[in-house]
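Example (one chain per record):
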Amino acid sequence: MKSLAIITGASRGIGRSIALAITDAINSCASERGLRNCFDDSLTSSLTPRPLISTPLRMVLISRSVDSLYETARLVQQRCDHAGIIQTSCHEIDLSDLDNLPEKFGR
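Predicted structure:
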C-alpha cells in the first residue's frame, strides 16, 4: 500500500501547517512505536488496526507561489526525523483557473 497526501495552498497558512502536522505525526508515531511498527503492514493482524499511512509517504505540495512552496518542502524535510520517509514534490498551479487545469496536466 502506498500513501499519498495532496496539500493545496501549501506555501503558507493552513496548507503549510497541514504539511508540517503530517510530518510531526509521522515523527511521533515512529518515536513511540518504532519506525517499522508505524508503517509496516506485515505487523498488523486482523485484530489490530492497519497503519494509516505507509512509507514512503509521497507529499504533493500545490500552490500559486512556487518560491514559498519550496520553503515548505524544505521545512518538511528538515523536520522529518527519518530520511526518505517523506518524499515531497512541488507544483505551481492556480486551482482557481479551472479552464486551464487540463493543460497543466497534459490533457
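Caption: The first strand starts at residue 3 and ends at 8.
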